[in-house]
Amino acid sequence: MDYYALVSSVFYFMASFIVSKRLFSNALAYRVHFTACISIAFFAHFSWLYQHIFLVSGQNLPMLNVLSMITFIIAVLSTLAHKRFNTGVLLPVVYAFCILTFIIITYLPSHYITHLERNPLIGTHILFALLAYSVLTIASLFALQLAYLNHYLKRPQLIKRKLSLPPLMTLEKSLFQFILIGFILLSCTLLTGFFFLEHMFYKENAHKAVLTLFAWVIYAVLLWGHFKRGWRGRMTIYITIAASSLLTLAYFGSRFVREIILS
């Protein structure tokens, strides 16, 4: 693990520890320490991404580098939104994924050089794709948190622990706000793909397009059902996780087999 990855991992761990302690109390004494730790973690993570992706020979975008970029985006968005959208409980999980990604990259280094400067419009498609996947992944984490909160409220012995959790209705509202934002970004991803990618439905890419379209349809039906029919509860949790799983297969399925298993 190189210098930036090590520094980022250490401060992600420290930030996770601080957030975890705050879950069991409402004390504000840790706010300055948390802000300092997570700022250093973000700076080191961004520096690592810049150093390992933007090379003289082009942009190095193997699956694991893309995954690290996504975990960085998720971590930043979750941290910025943790007060308004009650993502505090998710932060230790998100930061742990950032650390885990660094560890995996250390033992499974890989390279995939591309040249986005030759077609900047493809860069727009990639940006929308990264943001859409990141936001919808946060939504799936909200769904898991919602499932846990449902379980938590049905267990009196757990309630006695006084764990600082957001209200159920607030959490559900945040879930659908993230799904709506992610759905808009996913729509932009598909539109830019149709216009800017020449080989979107060729054999080697067809599964990505088809799975992404399936996920888009599922999210569209879920949003319609929630806002028009009042869908909520366990069904919306299952649908959210199913759609997120389809997107994960679309984004990483074939690359995981090609770059990790076969290599």
Present the secondary structure layout.
Blueprint: H1 3-22, H2 31-53, E1 54-55, E2 58-60, H3 63-80, H4 91-107, E3 113-114, H5 120-153, H6 156-159, H7 168-196, H8 203-229, H9 234-261
Antiparallel strand pairs: 1-2, 2-3
Helix pairs in contact: 1-2, 1-4, 2-3, 3-4, 3-5, 5-7, 5-9, 7-8, 8-9
Describe the 3D structure.
The chain is mostly helical and about 260 residues long. It has two domains: about 1-115; about 120-263, no CATH class. Helices cover about 75% and strands about 5% of the residues. The protein has nine helices and three strands. It has helices at about 5-20, 30-55, 65-80, 90-105, 120-155, 155-160, 170-195, 205-230, 235-260; strands spanning about 55, 60, 115. The protein has a three-stranded antiparallel β-sheet. Strand 1 (about 55) and strand 2 form a beta hairpin. The longest helix is centred in the middle third of the chain and has 34 residues, at about 120-155. It starts with a helix and ends with a helix. The mean pLDDT is about 85.
